[in-house]
Design brief:
Oligomer: heterotrimer
Number of helices of chain B: 9
Number of strands of chain A: 2
Chains: A mainly alpha, B mainly alpha, C alpha+beta
CATH topology of the largest domain in chain B: Cytochrome Bc1 Complex, Chain D, domain 2
Strand order of the largest sheet of chain A: 1-2
Shape of chain A: globular
Number of helices of chain A: 17
CATH architecture of the domain at 30-280 in chain A: Up-down Bundle
Strand order of the largest sheet of chain B: 1-2
Order of helices and strands of chain B: HHHEEHHHHEEHH
Largest sheet of chain A: 2 strands, antiparallel
Chain lengths: 424, 285, 232
Amino acid sequence: MSGHSTFEPKHPALKWFESRLPLVGLIHSSFVAYPTPRNLNYWWTFGGILSLMLVCQIVSGVVLAMHYTPHITLAFDSVEHIMRDVSYGWLIRYIHANGASMFFIAVYIHMFRGLYYGSYKAPREVLWILGCIIYLLMMATAFMGYVLPWGQMSFWGATVITNLFSAFPVVGPTIVEWLWGGFSVDNATLNRFFSLHYLLPFMIAGVVVLHVWALHVVGQNNPTGVEPKSPKDTVPFTPYATIKDGFGMVCFLIFFAWFLFYIPNYLGHADNYIPANPLVTPAHIVPEWYYLPFYAMLRAVPDKLGGVLTMFGAIIVLFFVPWLDTSKVRSGVYRPLFKQFFWIWVVVCIGLGWLGSKPAEGGYVIAGRILTIYYFAHFLIILPLLGLFEKPKAVPASITEAVLGKNKGAAPASAGVSAPQTKG
Amino acid sequence: MSTTMSFRSSLLRPLAVAALAFGLAAPALAADGHGTPKPPREEWSFAGPFGTFDQAQVQRGFQVFKEVCASCHAAHLFSFRNLAQPGGPSFSEAQAKAVAESYQVQDGPNDAGDMFDRPGRLSDRWPSPFPNEQAARASNGGAYPPDFSTLAKARTYEVGFPGFLIDIFTQYQENGVDYIHALLVGYEEPPEGFALPEGAHYNKYFPGHAIKMPQPLSDGQVTYTDGTPETLDQYSRDVTAFMMWMAEPHLEARKRIGFQVMIFLIIFAGLLYFTKKKVWKSVGH
Amino acid sequence: MQLEAIEGRVDRVPRGRLPVSRERSTPRRDGLAEAAVTGSRGKETIVAATETAGTTRRDFLYIATGAMGAVGAAALVWPFVSQLQPDASVLAMSTTEVDLTSIAEGQMVTVKWRGKPVFVWNRTEKDIAEAKETQLSALLDPIARNANLAADAPATDENRAGEGHEKWLVVIGICTHLGCVPIGHSGEYDGWFCPCHGSEYDTAGRVRRGPAPTNLDIPPYQFVSDTKISIG
């Protein structure tokens, strides 16, 4: 992934192989020797957690596809067949259903971390944009996956979301018919969604490879936002980052298992246990929780096309964050004003999510409008202006300086632990 | 580690503030449109991390289902063999076979091309009372008696803020059964001035209150052989427990395996934590 | 020592490519940290690192953690393998009933059981006599292959035909070579001829000419009455 390998095989067979395909060397340089900043905190373990979740979703999904039938008369029953008759089918199906939510929880934490510590700033713009593309692909994949059980929410979610495209003038209605392969969400729609739902995760995996590649070219950001300047600032990926990531992953799995085994239907909708009925719409149509902020923005705008553009714009704007943030300082740790605005923005996002689950009436719509405007203002007004007017705190000269300063001040008792640094 | 600490404090404080802000804002915004009361939360043997089905109760529930509900409600995902599988009513195979054989099931076509009826087998699905949804509606005043297969998971009620967050920690998953039980015992006289449509019945917990299903259960309707009180409340609890099992037949296995997985993960996380500490011991970070 | 290790590693950091000699020596210094992750090199490192009393405790910790991870991974694999087996609904689809009254003498009908063809043959006197005359020593496979009898029962006609109903021969219609369906009333032995690779079976469904290795299998079945059998 990063050019020349530093791995030197000793065994003749391995030597023979390495000289023809330096695979072990590639893995070695990417995941063993790769220098990682020594001061990464646990928010940095979510990259590894996301890789784990992608593998988890692909493996469980491939297994589910062995038992699932993409046909409108059989889809619902085949999912229930998995839940009832297939050996451990209930486990695998609940892993996949809850795994999607866990994937999004992890990706949101990962994105918030990147936004807080300025991980999108030069030279990591391409890394950030690749991440945004992964996020978009995840949204598409999750949406199509939710249609497959062919319950009431599957059907009506598919109907509402595909109808978004009808907002575009002139070509809208045609686009929608082509998406459907008919005049409503029907068997043709279910079949193509199944096909694409199987395809997209592998495209995600492909972009993830690019994402990791880009990461290994520019190196990881860190809580100080100061690039590593000397070897003292970094530690080798293995064992330091691997063991930390491993611990983070298992803690995340505990959280996952709580939902999976004890409240597996908490994040779903009861209506999706009713087979799809094209003649009756459920009383409250609500998308999956991870779309709720965008759903709130869609409904906040009284105009159909305007709502759709606002919703897509909310994601598009993320692509431009590297250039909208004008600050010279990378990490939010040293930006007192940015820090406050960042947390206001997080609260706004959560607020939009909550509003998305509420009926589109009265005070909810007004609140939705205010928060939508703020969401965009954060990126289009606050971020550019902050960089010009904010007076950042002093940034440490190096990662090591930041770490040592903290250790001395915060934990004098641990002097022995950090003794090697003082010795050198 | 210390970086984590300082970040944590800077991270969590605003979150706490945010949560508080929403706690205050929520009641003001949350306007419950209809006047349907929330169903009371009941005690269920299958609730909680160690919940299991009460075998006798699920067997009684099956009896109520068979003698009362099944005359209008289908359960098309339910097979006779399910009666003998572990983790539910767990009848013996002979008992399940006897139940199956007491039903006529359509099979065919035979060599002459005709469909024919034969006694049920374990592999057969539970026979539906109506051939299709239209026939069911025609016989029930236009209302479709919902299929029981997944019904206990297909019903819920809105918990609201902050209850829905608390439910994550208390593992409350019994929204469906609480609602169904409340509905079954919730028939009453309509209040003064309530315009009840023709052919509908007043139910306290049904959204909109006008339900097409007449009160299905009443005291003394089903004869229990094990001395359990033959009351509406008891029937309702029993049949609801049965419905929960029918909707989630592997619930017991799920919770049992879940506990084992949790124990494993917690010990593993502990080991990883100490390993991580050892590895990082001499590196300030 | 630790600092030296860190220092010795890289000159320009955010590159992801490291100079050979320095990098190579780096992580090994920390003894078992490496062993915990690579596992395979554990032994030599353990031998090397016996300087302090804390080492053995550390060994134990790393080994326990690694073992725990291995156990977890193995346990996780099981559900994904287990789901491959025939599911509960398939296992329950067991029995097929056949009415024998409509099968004339000499006629052979095919019924479906567990997704496979089963031949039910109302044999003539001539067919039965032919089968009975055949010596066991003339058979390629002397085992009855009858699911209703012991596994080592000899392939006599009595053991192949229906119990107490020697007219009736019930066999799974799948050639024991590679799974084709043989054609009835054909071949040199008056039983079945497999069009795929030329195996031939006699009037008791016993293989008489290769490449099929064994006789046609007889499914579990019983006579519910004189005119009805239940397969499975």
